[in-house]
Structure formats: structure tokens, C-alpha cells
Amino acid sequence: MTDTTRRRLLAGGLATLALPASAVPAPAAPARAAPDAVRLVRAAAGTEVTTPHNRVPSELANEASELPGRVRLGARTPNVTIYEFFDYNCPWCRKSCQDARALIEGEADLAYVLVNFAVLGAPSIEAARIALAYARQTDGKGYFALHEKLFSLKGTVNGQRAYDAARALGADGDRLLKDADSDVVTAAMKAAVNLGNNLGFTATPTYLVLTEAYHGYLPLADKRRIVANVRGCEAVVC
């Protein structure tokens, strides 16, 4: 990728993807439940999790299933679906990525949907553009390999590093750059940010299950508990 191309990707991202300040969380520690909430959770006999969460309007939650650029992993006909809104420069999203393979492989009827929610600055916008271009080029197949590769990188993940990772996986470089700078990819990024804003997402990762939003990293055991609850009683808490 030439310097000119990198500047074009960066300029395109900043010019066409307006990120309101409220949508840009600080890349700090994961959100924590207040002490009273934690005590309440612990009293629920293990049926709840301590990650802060709240109910969101069903009409907004349903929009997640129509987001352009979303990548579905796991079951084609699931009985449970988890959406993860993530940023490639979020350290807790990295941890969530490390959990994802075990979760998907251990839950045959689970769909795990990845939503690029590039809210941590210009490098994240660049990386998301390349990732979404790769998803378009591969029709989503093999995307998880790129997802894991990007989260295995140390330091800031930007467009150059995402491009190099995608090329190493066999992507067509010219098409990758063309798609990354396209209106289609820009629209997908804007749709994710707009929905996240409407849902009140101010942290990464944020997860959506049914009409419940979890703000901050969900440990693998908690994800499995939520999946079991949805299967058992069609709610995140039984």
C-alpha cells in the first residue's frame, strides 16, 4: 500500500464516517457493574452475569440482523444469536476473539455475528475498511481467519497492517483497496455506528442478545450461561 493510498483511505474514512464524540469510548478498562448490582447478580443463583447490561427496544435490536457488512459465524439456522460490536484496537475485544472459537465450536446451534464498530480512532477506521473489503471479496467465508490474525497483532492495527494480513490470506490487493474505499463499505460502517449510537453503545466490545445489550467484555463462561438461558426459557435470565 502506497503512502498516497493510505492517505486516501484515511481521508475517506474521516470525511465520510462522522463519529460523534458520544460514540467514541476511551480504550480503558472494561465497564464494571456497580457494587449494588454485583450483589444483586450474585443473589440470582448463577443465572445472571456481572457485566452491565440493559434492555433495548426490540425494533432497534431487530435492525442488527439487517446490518450491511455483518459477518455471521457458526450455525446457519441457529436457536441463539449473539452480536458482538467490536473494534480492532480494543484490548478487551482481543480477549473476546480468543474466546470466540471455543464458543462457536462448542455450541452447535449458535450464530455469532461480528459487527465492525470502528470507534477508537482513525487506525480503527482504516482497519475496518480493509476488513469489510476482505469480507466482500470472500463473501464472508474465511473472515474469521483475518479476524483472529488482526487481534493477534501487537500494537496499533491500522489500514496497512490489515491490508498486509488480508494479502497474506490470499486477498486480491487491488480489489481490496477499491472495495475499502467504496461507498458500500462506508455505508456499512456508518450503519453500524448509527445503530450502536441508537442502542446507547459507548464501549467495545458490546454484545446484543435478543433485546439485551451487554456493555463490556463477557467472559466465555458468561456467554455460555446466556446461551443456555436463551435455549432454556427464551430469555437471557431464567
Account of the protein in words:
- With about 240 residues, this protein is of the alpha+beta class.
- It has one domain: Glutaredoxin.
- It contains ten helices and six strands, in the order ααβαββαβαααααββα.
- A six-stranded mixed sheet has the order 1-6-5-3-4-2, sandwiched between helices.
- The longest helix is centred in the middle third of the chain and has 17 residues.
List strands and helices in order, with pairings.
Blueprint: H1 3-16, H2 35-42, E1 53-55, H3 58-61, E2 71-74, E3 80-86, H4 91-106, E4 110-116, H5 122-138, H6 143-152, H7 159-168, H8 173-180, H9 183-199, E5 206-209, E6 212-215, H10 220-233
Parallel strand pairs: 3-4
Antiparallel strand pairs: 1-6, 2-4, 3-5, 5-6
Overview features:
6-stranded mixed beta sheet; 6 strands; alpha+beta; 50% helix; Glutaredoxin; 238 residues; Thioredoxin-like_fold; Thioredoxin-like_sf; redox-active center
Short précis:
By secondary structure, this protein is of the alpha+beta class.
Q: What number of structural domains do the residues give?
A: 1
Shape: globular
User: How many E strands?
Assistant: 6
Mean pLDDT: 84
SS-based class: alpha+beta
